[in-house]
Amino acid sequence: MDPDIEALAEVMRTLGHDTRLRLIATLLEHGEKSVSEIEGLTGIGQPGLSQQLAILRKAELVQTRRAAKQVYYSVSPQAFAPAARFLAALAPSDGAGRLAKLERMEPPARGSAAMFAKML
């Protein structure tokens, strides 16, 4: 598999968790924050917060800075560049016309496995 695709897939997998996505959104909106500030902004308590920040740190999606006993987190924008380019390529290039058409599309019906088996 293409190394770029593997790296992109890893970023997407990491962001595919609602708590991690919320952490990234919070850091984007508020800038660099300490763990306690992030906890206050998001309501995500310990140890879950530390666990999710560690995953983001390991994926190099956030960067840290230590000041005395405090650890500050911020988004690593360079880590998101390939994903941003990929997602931008998926966006309609002719603007609102295609986007409006996509928004009018009905979401796929969600059935259970039993319903699927019944149809067979």
From TrEMBL:
User: Lineage of the source organism?
Assistant: Bacteria, Pseudomonadati, Pseudomonadota, Alphaproteobacteria, Sphingomonadales
Species of origin reads: Novosphingobium fuchskuhlense
Q: What is this protein called?
A: ArsR family transcriptional regulator
* Pfam families on file: HTH_5 (PF01022)
GO MF assignments: DNA binding; DNA-binding transcription factor activity
Q: Which UniProt keywords apply?
A: DNA-binding, Transcription, Transcription regulation
- Keyword Transcription regulation attached: yes
Recorded superkingdom = Bacteria
Leader sequence residues: none
Classification via SUPFAM superfamilies: Winged helix' DNA-binding domain (SSF46785)
Q: Does the keyword Transferase apply?
A: no
Q: Which Gene3D superfamilies does this one have?
A: Winged helix-like DNA-binding domain superfamily/Winged helix DNA-binding domain
Provide the HTH arsR-type domain boundaries. Answer: 1-95
